[in-house]
UniProtKB/TrEMBL annotation, chain A:
<dbReference type="GO" id="GO:0010008">
    <property type="term" value="C:endosome membrane"/>
</dbReference>
<keyword id="KW-0677">Repeat</keyword>
<feature type="compositionally biased region" description="Polar residues">
    <location>
        <begin position="663"/>
        <end position="675"/>
    </location>
</feature>
<comment type="function">
    <text>Part of the AP-3 complex, an adaptor-related complex which is not clathrin-associated. The complex is associated with the Golgi region as well as more peripheral structures. It facilitates the budding of vesicles from the Golgi membrane.</text>
</comment>
<dbReference type="GO" id="GO:0030123">
    <property type="term" value="C:AP-3 adaptor complex"/>
</dbReference>
<feature type="region of interest" description="Disordered">
    <location>
        <begin position="803"/>
        <end position="863"/>
    </location>
</feature>
<feature type="compositionally biased region" description="Low complexity">
    <location>
        <begin position="756"/>
        <end position="769"/>
    </location>
</feature>
<comment type="subunit">
    <text>Adaptor protein complex 3 (AP-3) is a heterotetramer.</text>
</comment>
<feature type="region of interest" description="Disordered">
    <location>
        <begin position="604"/>
        <end position="638"/>
    </location>
</feature>
TrEMBL record, chain B:
<protein>
    <recommendedName>
        <fullName>AP complex subunit sigma</fullName>
    </recommendedName>
</protein>
<dbReference type="InterPro" id="IPR022775">
    <property type="entry name" value="AP_mu_sigma_su"/>
</dbReference>
<keyword id="KW-0813">Transport</keyword>
<dbReference type="InterPro" id="IPR016635">
    <property type="entry name" value="AP_complex_ssu"/>
</dbReference>
<comment type="similarity">
    <text>Belongs to the adaptor complexes small subunit family.</text>
</comment>
<keyword id="KW-0653">Protein transport</keyword>
<dbReference type="GO" id="GO:0006886">
    <property type="term" value="P:intracellular protein transport"/>
</dbReference>
<keyword id="KW-0472">Membrane</keyword>
<dbReference type="Pfam" id="PF01217">
    <property type="entry name" value="Clat_adaptor_s"/>
</dbReference>
Length: 863, 184
């Protein structure tokens, strides 16, 4: 309160410097309540005779409005007057424009009526600073008023052609881009002219001289144009490519961005090759650099680029190549070679940084992946999607996998390998038939050094090992030699797996033990004297891994699967769950356990008509069954199964956990329930497992690719498989996916950010009737007064409480009376506000105690 | 708007820190350290725009296009031993900011007559006065150098007497604030 008064006094002082001080200070310390109480005084300063005071007041009001939007409502008419006044001091107008520019993007609608005045100021005033701001403002206004673009085009082109100030030139171009002048539909001729002019000027900015700033901002602007006019920009390719070799990292990064935006299938290869050259230079020792042609033509000093830049380049190369589902790549063999090359070029330290914070990575999975892992994933993607080069991709993966190659690709001490090896191991295993020498690959996979790989990579290795092993066992000719060879290999694999069976990571451990047991069985079967291949090796284990072809599935596909009508995910199993759980104690432990789990997975039965349309289970379920048969699980005759089912149904009839089949239409019990209950070695009722046939939009996809291919010169016809997804008639995906963006600004608030969102809700446009605003002001005032009263009361009480504690215990009674009276006064002052008073309950207690003592005194008297 | 104006020397010692939003000292210091690290890496021939330091880049991702409240550009300029940094949102023009720093330094030069780092240390009041003539609450109010100088002098004239006493009492070298004597 004291400070507020002092500030008030300073604001209305006669000395100008003294008056300016609070105006400068206020933006730093402003709070809503302070803004409210100071607003009238500051408003009066707007009409001060000194322009210095006026301009600072305008800016001060802007900051006031940020915390207290009502201020703007009152101040805006006056600021507008200053803006419209031709006689006004230039610097005041500039300040007002600056403020309007800040406000403008929040509520552009309110400033549209002022456009003519802005236009006038832009054309007439020779002030470049102000012109820049006005152009910035127009950039936010033009999307709302299409007529404005036509009017602006001429003066802007005029400025672009005549001005000597680079900043103004740049802002004009920027304004044209951001204002959306370039991306409308009508009068295309003129638009293209402007675009050409802009790009030409930008090219000039890049080329003109060695000013790195101009280069940077020109690239920035080109980056914005590239979205609408990629062809225009790609005409400037030569200049941009030169920027890729610039000495400045900022410029390089911008150029890289641009390169990603503008590449076509023709320019992709040179661009990537150039970047690869750069990377090679960066990783090569300085002595070799002299020989490369790149450095000889440019006089720049060959600096070693920081690792994060090199990583960025790697990411960008991958971005470049993988965009639009590899539609820009003509030569996939080349791409695979590039990927292999990239592995060798990865900067060593980067991946270490990433791997040292695995937790962080998990927390932000959407963030960019580790570059090494990305390369591995790319190789896998190519292998899966492009059937034509699957052989090459697998061979590449194989070459990376070899233990003796690893030391060259992944220098010791670095952890690049960990990221790359995982996906590669998968490729090697999945497409084992493409391998050049499966034997060598298998030996590399079970190399003892692999045991130290991280637990995220090891499971992939473990999966790949039996796959490759199967490949070997199937391709080689049966015979004595074969047998000894295979058993030797098996022994080595088993030895490797045994080492991992006690791995601390559970996932690794589980897989290792599973495969260990299977392979032990295989080894056992080999020891028999028969000449032919044991059944286990010949068909059982291979069948584990042969099945349907794996296809890429879009991440959103799962969401598009239409729920069957009979599946009620929302419905509780029983409405009396707590009661049921109470009864659980009666059940025997074994039974209750199995019921719980089965209930958990329980699915309501699909109605019987669906059953006909259901596809039979795919073949890859079969091996499980046969495997179980092989290990000697007793197969019961169907009648026994039927009887067992009936028995069970009888047993569960009264059990509330068991959901009885609805109606008698189907003969079997609920499929999952049964499947679960019987899966412990009894029987697999495969027919009863509902399989939803996934209808994929294959025709659509292949049609697209045909079109793409026809456009491209047929170097080699390769089909890139797109993500599989469903064609939903009612564009389910769009509605179900929450739009991350402007609607819900959930992003984390940045440091230094001034929150002006409250301004967005405030309307200035021919403001509401004064009655309403006055009402609002009153209400606001009343609320603020209440708050202040509250705070004051609380402070007062706090001081009293301290007093209270300080006083001796005997004195409390006397003190309390005083307090009570004072409290009455206080609550009167609080005009109907509910003031929470921590001392109140205590007082109540005391009162009660007092009463009690009085009563107890009374009671003996009565007695 | 401009979110912060920083001046530090080649060793990363801050000479002026002006944040136009409230920020606790700890964050301020780590931000300055991060920006200094970025500036120190850059060769003289590099352009005057910095990538966002980690502290600032957290919230900036969502502001890919169009103006917003998040600071997205950092413009710096180095003069001899001092680096001038401006952190701003996208509503400011990057090239204009470079010019603004130029105007700031020129104004300081006029006030101090051949400004140097020591001037800023001992004449910090003038330094702040110049800045507050140019930027108020993160908004540029004046870019005309004559008006800035006039504004600062008007303020100093009021405090002149006090300053003179201070200057006389300090036994520090350089005859403290030589530039201030010139106008009286």
């Amino acid at each position: 309160m004291l400070a507020t008064n002092l500030l008030k006094k300073d604001i209305v002082t006669s000395s100008i410097p003294n008056m300016l001080l609070p105006l400068i200070t206020l933006p730093h310390i402003i709070t809503p309540s302070l803004a409210m109480s100071l607003l009238p005084d500051i408003l009066s300063r707007l009409s001060h005779s000194s322009p210095v005071v006026r301009k600072k007041t305008i800016v001060c009001l802007y900051r006031l409005a940020l915390v207290y939007p009502e201020a703007l409502k009152l101040a805006w008419p006056k600021i507008k007057d200053h803006l419209m006044d031709d006689q006004e001091d230039g610097s005041v107008t500039t300040a007002a424009i600056n403020v309007v520019c800040e406000l403008g993007w929040r509520r552009p609608h309110d400033f549209l009526p002022l456009a003519p005045r802005f236009f006038e100021l832009l054309v007439d005033s020779g002030n470049n600073w102000m012109a820049i701001k006005i152009i910035k403002l127009f950039a936010t206004l033009t999307p709302l008023e299409p007529r404005l673009t036509r009017k602006l085009l001429r003066p802007l082109t005029n400025i672009i052609q005549t001005t000597s100030a680079m900043s103004l030139l740049y802002e004009c171009i920027n304004g044209i881009i951001q204002g959306g002048i370039l991306d409308g539909e009508d009068n295309l001729q003129e638009r293209d002219e402007v675009a050409t002019l802009c790009v030409g000027k930008l090219r000039g900015m890049i080329l003109m001289d060695s000013d790195p700033n101009l280069k940077y901002v020109a690239l920035l602007a080109l980056n914005r144009i590239v979205a609408t006019h990629p062809t225009l920009v790609s005409m400037q390719q030569d200049v941009i490519m030169d920027c890729l070799d610039d000495a400045d990292v900022s410029i390089r990064l911008q150029a890289l961005d641009l390169a990603v935006g503008m590449v076509s299938s023709d320019s992709l290869q040179p661009v990537v090759n150039r970047l690869l050259d750069q990377l090679q230079q960066a990783s090569a020792p300085a002595a070799e650099l002299v020989d490369t042609p790149q450095t000889s033509e440019s006089p720049k000093v060959p600096t070693l680029w920081p690792n994060d830049y090199r990583t960025e380049v790697v990411h960008r190369i991958l971005d470049l190549c993988s965009q639009k589902n590899y539609s820009e790549i003509v030569d996939f063999e080349w791409y695979v070679a590039v990927l292999v090359q990239l592995v060798g070029l990865l900067p060593p330290s980067e991946s270490e940084d990433d791997w040292s914070h695995p937790k962080e990575q998990e927390a932000m999975p959407n963030l960019r992946m580790n570059a090494a892992f990305r390369i591995g994933t790319e190789i896998r993607n190519v292998a899966v999607r492009v059937k034509g080069v699957r052989m090459e991709a697998t061979r590449a993966a194989e070459s990376l996998m070899f233990v003796d190659n690893r030391s060259t690709f992944f220098p010791s001490g670095s952890t690049i390998g960990d990221g790359v090896l995982g996906p590669i191991a998968w490729v090697v295993g999945e497409y084992a038939e493409c391998l050049l020498s499966p034997n060598r690959t298998l030996l590399s996979l079970i190399d003892i050094s692999n045991a130290s790989l991280p637990s995220t990579t090891l499971p992939l290795f473990l999966q790949a090992i039996p796959k490759v092993f199967v490949q070997i066992s199937q391709t080689s000719q049966p015979g004595d030699l074969w047998k000894s060879e295979i058993s030797l290999l098996l022994a080595r694999v088993i030895e490797f797996l045994e080492g991992l069976a006690a791995h601390p990571d559970l996932d690794v451990q589980e897989r290792a033990i599973e495969f260990l047991e299977v392979l032990r069985l295989a080894a056992e079967s080999l020891t028999s004297d028969t000449q032919e291949v044991p059944f286990l090796l010949a068909s059982v284990i291979p069948n584990l891994f042969t099945g349907l072809e794996l296809n890429p599935v879009a991440t959103s596909a799962q969401r598009k699967v239409v729920l069957p009508d009979s599946l009620h995910l929302e419905e509780p199993f029983s409405h009396d769950l707590p009661g049921l759980f109470r009864n659980l104690g009666d059940l025997s432990p074994h039974e209750s356990k199995s019921w719980e789990t089965s209930d958990f997975y329980h699915l309501p039965e699909l109605s019987s008509p669906n059953k006909q349309t259901r596809d039979p289970a795919p073949v890859d379920l079969q091996p499980h069954a046969s495997y179980q048969n092989f290990t000697g699980a007793p197969v019961e005759p169907p009648i026994a199964v039927q009887r067992r089912m009936l028995e069970r149904r009888e047993r569960f009839k009264d059990d509330p956990f068991y959901i009885a089949p609805s109606g008698e239409s189907s003969g079997t019990s609920t499929p999952f329930h049964e499947a679960l209950n019987t899966s412990n070695g009894e029987v697999l009722d495969i027919d009863s497992i509902p399989i939803v046939d996934l209808k994929l939009g294959d025709e659509q996809l292949s049609h697209d690719f045909d079109r793409q291919r026809s456009r491209r010169p047929p170097v080699r016809k390769l089909v890139v498989t797109g993500d599989e997804t469903f064609e939903t008639p009612n564009s389910l995906a769009d509605t179900s996916r929450p739009k991350g963006g402007d609607d819900h600004p959930t992003y984390k608030r940045s440091l230094l950010q001034v929150d002006s969102s409250s301004l967005g809700n405030l309307s200035l446009a021919n403001g509401p009737s004064p009655q309403v605003s006055a009402d609002e002001g009153d209400r606001e005032m009343a609320r603020a007064m209440q708050q202040m009263e509250e705070v004051r009361l609380r402070m007062q009480r706090a001081s009293e409480r301290i007093q209270l504690e300080g006083t001796p215990a005997e004195g409390t009674l006397v003190k309390k009376k005083k307090k009570k009276t004072r409290k009455h006064v206080a609550s009167d002052r609080a005009v109907g506000t509910v003031v929470e008073d921590p001392t109140e309950p205590a007082m109540g207690k005391k009162k009660k105690r007092k009463k009690k003592t009085q009563e107890s005194e009374k009671l003996p008297g009565e007695n | 708007m401009i979110n912060a104006v920083l001046v530090f020397n080649n060793n990363g010692q801050p000479r002026l820190t002006k944040f136009y939003t409230q920020l606790d000292t700890q964050t301020q210091q780590s931000l300055i350290a991060q920006i200094y690290r970025l500036v120190a890496q850059r060769p003289a021939s590099a352009c005057n725009f910095l990538p966002l330091p980690p502290l600032l880049s957290q919230g900036a991702s969502s502001s890919a296009s169009g103006p917003s409240d998040t600071p997205t550009q950092i413009t710096y300029r180095t003069y001899a031993t001092l680096s001038f940094i401006m952190i701003s949102t996208s509503t400011e023009s990057p090239l204009a900011l470079i010019d603004l720093i130029q105007v700031f330094v020129e104004a300081l030069d006029r006030m101090f007559e051949n400004v140097c780092e020591l001037d800023l240390i001992f004449g910090y009041e003038t330094l702040h006065a110049v800045l507050s003539e140019m930027i108020v609450g993160g908004v540029v109010v004046e870019t005309h150098i004559e008006k800035i100088i006039a504004g600062v002098r008007a303020q100093e004239g009021y405090l002149g007497k006090k300053k003179a006493v201070q200057a006389a009492s300090t036994s520090l070298g350089r005859g403290a604030l030589p530039g201030l004597g010139a106008w009286r």
